[in-house]
Amino acid sequence: MNCNICPRGCNINRKTNTGFCKSSDQIRAARAALHFWEEPCISGSNGSGAIFFSGCNMRCIFCQNYNIAANTDGIEISVERLSEIMLTLQAQGANNINLVTPTHFTYEIIKALELAKNKGLVIPIVYNTSSYEKVETLKDLDGLVDVYLPDFKYVSHELSKEYSNAPDYFEVASAALAEMYRQRKAPVFFTDEERESLKKSHNVNIEDGILKSGIVVRHLCLPGSTKDSKAVIKYLYEKYGDNIFISIMNQYTPLKQVENHPKLHRKVTKREYDSVIDYALDLGLTKGFTQDGSVASESFIPEFDYRGIL
C-alpha cells in the first residue's frame, strides 16, 4: 500500500522508495534513553523514556535534530525490538514512553505498543509531534496515546512555507490539535492512590506531578518572528483556554545549516522572548511553561549515539 500517512500525501511505496520523510517502511531510530529536558509534568526528575525516530515529515530548515530528521543517523529495528525498548525504559524508571517524531512510523508503533502493553507496559504514552498530522491517522491512535505533546509552529503561511515547506501548516495543525483534544480533553494527573497501585502491581514508580493524560502544546520562538509567536499563543488560548498547557520555548539554537540565513542565524533575544511571555500573561494564560535563555545551547540537544537502540 502506498504511503499517505501524513498531509504530504507522497503516495509512494516505502518498501522500494522514500518520500518527503526520507524513510522506508522499516522503523529507524537513533536514541532511546531517559530524557530530562521536557516539561516538568513530562520528565519530572526520573526522566521521560524518549525514543528518537529518524526521518521527519516536516524537515524544517532550522531543525534542532537535523541529522536524524534528514535520516542520516539511525538504526533499523523491528516492531518486536521497539516493544522491548519500551519495556526496558519502563524498567529503568521512566515516567512515560516519549515517542519523538513518530508520525511516519505510526502503524509500526501501534503494533509495538500493543505488544508491549500485552507484556506489562503500563506507563503513559506520549506522542511528541510537529502537529503536521492527518486527523484520520490520529484517530487510529485513540486509546493508545495518553499524552499529546504537539508543536504549534506557525500561524503565518509565509513562515511555514519558507521554513517548513508547508504553507498549509496552520490549517493542518489546527485540525490535528482539535482531534487530539477530542481524545484527551483537559489534563489529568496521577493521584497518590494510582501511583501507589502501579508500584504494588507492576513495580513502577511514577513521580508526583506527572501527567496521566492531556495535552501540552509547545511553541518554539524563532528570531525575528515575535508577531507570529503572539498569533500562535492568541489562537491556542482563545481556542482552548486552560484546558491545555502551553509551553513557550526559548531554546532555539542556530545550527550550521542556517548560519547564513538572514533571520535564523541568531538566537532569540531576551527582549523578543519577554515580549511573547508578557503577551501571554496579558491574555490571561496561567497553565503554561517558560524557559530561561540559558537553554539555547547545543548542549541541550541529545547525542544520537544509538544509546538504547542496539
TrEMBL record:
InterPro entries for this protein: Aldolase_TIM, MJ0674-like, Pyrv-formate_lyase-activ_prd, rSAM, rSAM_sf
Superkingdom per UniProt: Bacteria
GO MF annotations in UniProt: iron-sulfur cluster binding; lyase activity; metal ion binding
Keywords: Iron, Iron-sulfur, Lyase, Metal-binding, Pyruvate, S-adenosyl-L-methionine
Residues that bind [4Fe-4S] cluster: 56, 60, 63
PANTHER family per the UniProt record, alphabetical: FORMATE LYASE ACTIVATING ENZYME, PUTATIVE (AFU_ORTHOLOGUE AFUA_2G15630)-RELATED (PTHR43075:SF1)
Protein name: Putative pyruvate formate lyase activating enzyme
UniProt organism field: Lachnospira pectinoschiza
